[in-house]
Amino acid sequence: MSDLPAILLAAGGSTRMRGADKLLEEVNGVPLLRRQAARLCAATRGTVIVTLPPAPHPRDAALDGLDVKIVRVADPSLGMNASLSAGVVALPDARAALVALADMPDLEMADFARVLAAVDDSATRIWRACTENGAPGHPIAFHRDLWPALRALTGDTGGRAVVQAHAHVTRMIPLPGTRARTDLDTPEAWAAWRAT
């Protein structure tokens, strides 16, 4: 099992759900946020950081009893990079850290573990999950050398600029099917996913 830390980005406003909270949608009776946080905790002995909106928030209860470090994002409306930056600032000393999105219900504990296990001491600086056909997705592990660049990001790009700038030192990690790209942002997406 890895001892690398992980960040679960969960501070977004769920704005495309038309009033519902996608991270509190239940999957087999468990809120998605709790399900994915628990899977990360099972994949690593390292610190699992969960970024959340300011307290109090309905998502707080979904994490009760889990061994996670909650980091509050003062203004999540500034975009995903506000959440990413807050999580990176809170990281403990480590050679790399995994960044995961909380709205990807197909990701299993083994998927997180596979990307974490790929982190090595080569010249690679990004280890990125992809579909079995090679389409890039999530989660993504970043070498500590890139943490300052991640902290400096603004907007809603989710680290895209850092990923693009380091494509030459990125290793792709295939996951089964399309797990690495399945995210659910709308009621329609949830309905279609549940139907399958």
UniProtKB/TrEMBL annotation:
<feature type="domain" description="MobA-like NTP transferase">
    <location>
        <begin position="6"/>
        <end position="168"/>
    </location>
</feature>
<protein>
    <submittedName>
        <fullName>Nucleotidyltransferase family protein</fullName>
    </submittedName>
</protein>
<dbReference type="InterPro" id="IPR025877">
    <property type="entry name" value="MobA-like_NTP_Trfase"/>
</dbReference>
<dbReference type="GO" id="GO:0016779">
    <property type="term" value="F:nucleotidyltransferase activity"/>
</dbReference>
<keyword id="KW-0460">Magnesium</keyword>
<dbReference type="InterPro" id="IPR029044">
    <property type="entry name" value="Nucleotide-diphossugar_trans"/>
</dbReference>
<dbReference type="Pfam" id="PF12804">
    <property type="entry name" value="NTP_transf_3"/>
</dbReference>
